[in-house]
What we know:
- By secondary structure, the protein is α/β, with parallel strands linked by helices.
- It folds into two domains: 3-58, no CATH class; 61-241, Rossmann fold (3-Layer(aba) Sandwich).
- It is 53% helix and 11% strand.
- It is built from twelve helices and five strands.
- The protein has helices spanning 3-9, 13-29, 33-60, 81-88, 91-94, 109-122, 132-144, 148-156, 173-186, 203-207, 210-222, 237-241; strands spanning 98-102, 127-131, 160-166, 191-196, 224-228.
- It has a five-stranded parallel sheet with strand order 2-3-4-1-5, sandwiched between helices.
- Helix 3 (33-60) crosses helix 6 and helix 9 (173-186) packs parallel to helix 11 (210-222).
- The N and C termini lie far apart (58 Å).
- Residues 247-257 have low confidence and may be disordered.
- The structure holds adenosine-5'-diphosphate and magnesium ion.
Amino acid sequence: MNLDSLLQKLKMEHLQLGLDSICEHAAKQELDYRAFLTQALSEEWHGRHQKGFESRLKQARLPWVKTVEEFDFTFQPSIDRKLIRELSGLGFIERNENVVLLGPPGVGKTHLAIALAVKAAEAGHRVMFLPLDKLLSTLLKAKQENRLERQLQLLIYPKLLVLDEIGYLPMSREEASLFFRLVNRRYERASTILTSNKSFIDWGDVFGDQAIATAILDRLLHHSTTLNIKGDSYRLKDKRKAGMLTSLPEEETPTTT
Ligand code: ADP
Ligand code: MG
């Protein structure tokens, strides 16, 4: 068998593609056999890793991609940079712990949630991003179509699930109970990142029922890290700088999305 067929049979497509330049490089550098083999296999490994990462990113359905490196910590001093660095190490995913990002609009909650999701996908974890309204409509539809169990099963599959924007819309009792079932299923099995504009005290109103809110928080917060972000909206920073928003009180500042 010739080299091309061997590489094809072994499914080493990345090595096959880069073979000429790797051989050329090895000849120029006068690499010994071991160094050459290391380079050749690294080429295949990096190619596979990149392909896997791209496919996990696609499956994650992120609304946009942002990284931790793109986050300006000097703009948001209430965020503990060390804590974000620690979370970026993804130990929380290994331990099936949760992360809750709380704060007013525009402070970077979704940005940080996405950035951690990207890190997770890069490290080989299955990731899924769902805005809360999408999650609830998916669960309601599945329930109506008698396939709730299967849908819940699909939502347990991702090692990291990002549930974005809890609290913007109040939930019906049925929605709250579906949300509870999901949280209960993922509890101690997989990690969830949640973002919310409401502090925990107001979650009773969000879920429309204090008892359900307590049960949800009990499971979510048992193994978790909460970041309470206090600060100005990044979206409005230029307008604020230009003095356009000085007359508006903090709570009423509009957001642009
Ligand atoms: P939130 O989810 O808290 O409402 P977002 O994460 O959607 O806010 O942030 C709004 C926009 O501002 C996004 O485009 C985000 O990337 C950007 N942004 C927010 N905070 C920062 C920051 N500290 N550094 C860089 N970009 C930021
Ligand atoms: Mg957001």
